[in-house]
Amino acid sequence: MIFDLIVNEEPIHTEAPADISLLHFLRDHLKLTGTKEGCNVGECGACSVLLDGKLVNSCLILAAQANGRRVVTIEGIHAEDGGPNDLQQAFIEYGAVQCGFCIPGMVLAGEALLNSNINPTRAEIREAIAGNLCRCTGYQQIVDAIQATALKRQEKGRRD
Ligand code: FES
Ligand code: FES
Fold this sequence. Notes:
Blueprint: E1 2-7, E2 10-15, H1 22-29, E3 48-51, E4 54-57, E5 70-72, H2 86-93, H3 103-116, H4 122-128, H5 140-159
Parallel strand pairs: 1-5
Antiparallel strand pairs: 1-2, 3-4, 3-5
């Protein structure tokens, strides 16, 4: 099957099996291995990506369902200079990264939330990352990092 879609702002035109999951299409065909394969059944969130701006588990979606649409993976999240963006920097500063396996999905869950709600409560942040499991950090630092980024983006919005 021919696939035509936009991944991280780049047009992709390629052939892959019609029944391939979006997760395996990204990892195996496009070599975007920042998207992690955890449970493969929709329970851990390690495979989270944005599909037309919405957070989805790429293990549960056929790549065919993303055809003609826009996908953002963790490789598409960065500062203008290619380094960590403000949210990724906050994860580092708040000690929200330990083994790192959950982090691509957590960052995308955070971006999805902040794109729709620039002033989330801690409860809303917890709800937004409820589908993303972290076995290391206890979540507190992750919530801190997302909340700090929300505040910074609000301040920046007021200045701009
Ligand atoms: S690998 Fe997709 S939810 Fe766990
Ligand atoms: S940092 Fe290890 S699973 Fe989250």
